[in-house]
Amino acid sequence: MAYPEKYKYTKEHEWIEVAGNIGTVGITDYAQNSLGDIVFVEAPKVGDKVTKGASFGSVESVKAVSELFSPVTGTVTEVNAELHDSPEDLNTEPHTAWIIKVELSDASELDALLSAADYEAFIAEETGH
């Protein structure tokens, strides 16, 4: 699966798409493949603060529980409630099934994230492929 060039990526395998001052956050295809079948998503509440690099929730799969790390600092403006009933959407639509939307506190934090090409190179290095 190709990684959308309009997104920015973290080395913890989250993506973010920014429109205006709102960032939409999800996990990458690589992450969902590594996790296996996702059975539960724990996300923050609307109004909660998230911090770049800090955990904001978790995903539970048949293999393990994995923390989610925020690519930016800001305030949660929306949570994808559909994931409560259909967490498997993260497996089937990893680059459109988002988890949270965040109002960015500092847009300059985006400069430190990876481009799609950089992320693919990072994965290739990490997996040896």
Descriptive notes:
Keywords: Lipoyl. Belongs to the GcvH family. With 129 residues, the protein is of the alpha+beta class. The chain has a single domain (7-128), classed as Beta Barrel (OB fold (Dihydrolipoamide Acetyltransferase, E2P)), CATH 2.40.50.100. Helices cover 21% and strands 34% of the residues. It has helices spanning 29-35, 82-85, 89-92, 116-127, and strands spanning 8-9, 14-19, 22-27, 38-42, 49-50, 55-61, 65-69, 74-79, 100-104. It has a 6-stranded antiparallel β-sheet. The longest helix has 12 residues, at 116-127. The mean pLDDT is 96.
Shape: globular
In CATH's first tier, which class applies? Mainly Beta
Based on DSSP secondary structure assignment, what is the total number of beta strands?
A: 9
CATH architecture, by name, is: Beta Barrel
Individual helix count:
4
Count of separate structural domains: 1
Q: Say what the CATH topology is.
A: OB fold (Dihydrolipoamide Acetyltransferase, E2P)
Query: What average pLDDT do the residues reach?
Result: 96
List low-confidence stretches: none
Overall radius of gyration: 14 Å
Q: For the largest sheet, list the strands in their spatial order.
A: 1-2-3-9-8-5
Largest sheet: 6 strands, antiparallel
Helix/strand class: alpha+beta
> What is the H/E string?
EEEHEEEEEHHEH
CATH-level-4 superfamily name = RNA polymerase II/Efflux pump adaptor protein, barrel-sandwich hybrid domain
Report the helical percentage.
Answer: 10-25%
